[in-house]
Amino acid sequence: MEIIKSYSLFLNSREADNGTPNNCNFLFTTPIVLTNTNNRFLISTPMIELPYSFSQVNATNNRLPYTYKDAGGTFSSTSMLIPIGNYNINQLQTQLATSLIADILIYRPSSTLTTANLVFTYNSQTGLTTQSITGVSTTQIQLNFASSFVLGIMLGFPAVNSSATAFGTGGTGYAGTLTSPNKVMVNPITSVYLRSETLKFQSNYEAIVQTYNNSDIIAKVPITTLPNSIVYYRNDIKYLISNKFLPSLNLYWSDNLSTLYTLDLQGVNWGVMVQIDEVMMKPTNAYQDTIGHPTPVVPKELVAERDRLMEDLIQRKERLEKEIEAKRAANQAEVKIAENKNLESK
Asked: How far apart are CA 335 and CA 346, in angstroms?
């Protein structure tokens, strides 16, 4: 492919014509149009500056349902929330205990359970967490990670809801101490994706949070820094799009966990360089590398005959040019003689 024309767009979400940093639109004063409808556009993002302003625990994954049982009976709750934010594992364990107690007291005001009774720990050598209850009798909690797989990843539990995620004192089928089967991962958002609803991709596919389907991803940005820092990312990968006319450009962000395809940057702006190249599509080499019948050689006699005819034509051309020139000179001489006679007669 040969590049015919290039457009370099330096964009900042602060200057978008509408939308928010999470999802915004840029309107072009002069639309970008193919100079030839047989050509195509390639798009890439050579440079991205993204603030790590989003939260690992966010509005799409901070709810953890659970079932609680004590001497007063059993109830199930779907309202227990972990406040939105970024946590290390010790902070997350402490917040889990605090949120559980606050929610339990809503359904069971008579409960004497406190955070001191919930012993949530983390072993830095094994990378596993443990949950247990102490100081009370016949109290059991079952965490439903099937409905909150992200918090399950963060705490080291698979997405299941069974006695394997239950702990407490008294009763049967409940372990006194619950230990996570997996290592914790408090930063499960390991990459984010810059996407566009404007562009029509020809060969982009994904299977990140849903089954294999068409994709609108422009760039995958790995998260390799700490929260409240800037992620700088260079990307030279170019994607072929079928748009022939671009009056505007939509850009939005998603993470590698949510099926809602939204990433909340919490109002912080970001920047990107977008490169759009118009390229001329050249024919492929299909069937040109296959071995076929050899091309027949032109006989020498025909070549000699061709050369002889060419020489004859050249000679005839030269003779005609000489005859034309002689005729032109004779005509000019006759005209000159006639003019002189006219002058003498006067």
From this structure: 17
Residue 151 to residue 145: CA distance in whole angstroms = 7
> Shortest CA distance to 180 belongs to which of 124, 131, 125?
131
Per-residue pLDDT of the chain (346 residues; tens, 9 = 90+): 789 999 999 999 999 999 999 999 999 999 999 999 889 999 999 999 999 999 999 999 999 999 999 888 899 999 999 999 999 999 999 999 999 999 999 999 988 899 999 999 999 999 999 999 998 888 999 999 988 999 999 999 987 766 678 888 876 555 688 899 999 999 999 999 999 999 998 888 999 988 998 999 999 999 999 999 999 999 889 999 999 999 999 999 999 998 888 899 999 999 999 999 999 986 555 445 445 555 566 677 777 888 888 888 888 888 888 888 888 888 888 888 877 777 777 6
Q: Is the Cα dihedral 239, 242, 247, 250 positive or negative?
A: negative
Record the tokens describing residue 306, joined without a space. 């061709």
> Using CA atoms, how far apart are residues 41 and 244, in angstroms rounded to an integer?
8
Q: What is the DSSP string of 247-302?
A: EEEEEEEEESS-TT-----TT---EEEEEEEEEEPPP--TTTSS--PPPPPPPHHH
User: Can you tell me the distance from the alpha carbon of 296 to that of 294, in angstroms, rounded to the nearest whole number?
Assistant: 6
How is 41-106 classified by DSSP, letter by letter? EEEEEEEEEEE--S-SB-TTT-B--EEEEETTEEEEES--BPPSB---HHHHHHHHHHHHHHHHHH
State phi, psi for 251 to the nearest 5 degrees.
-135, 130
Q: Give the amino acid at 70.
A: D
User: Tokens 């990107």 map to which residue?
Assistant: 272
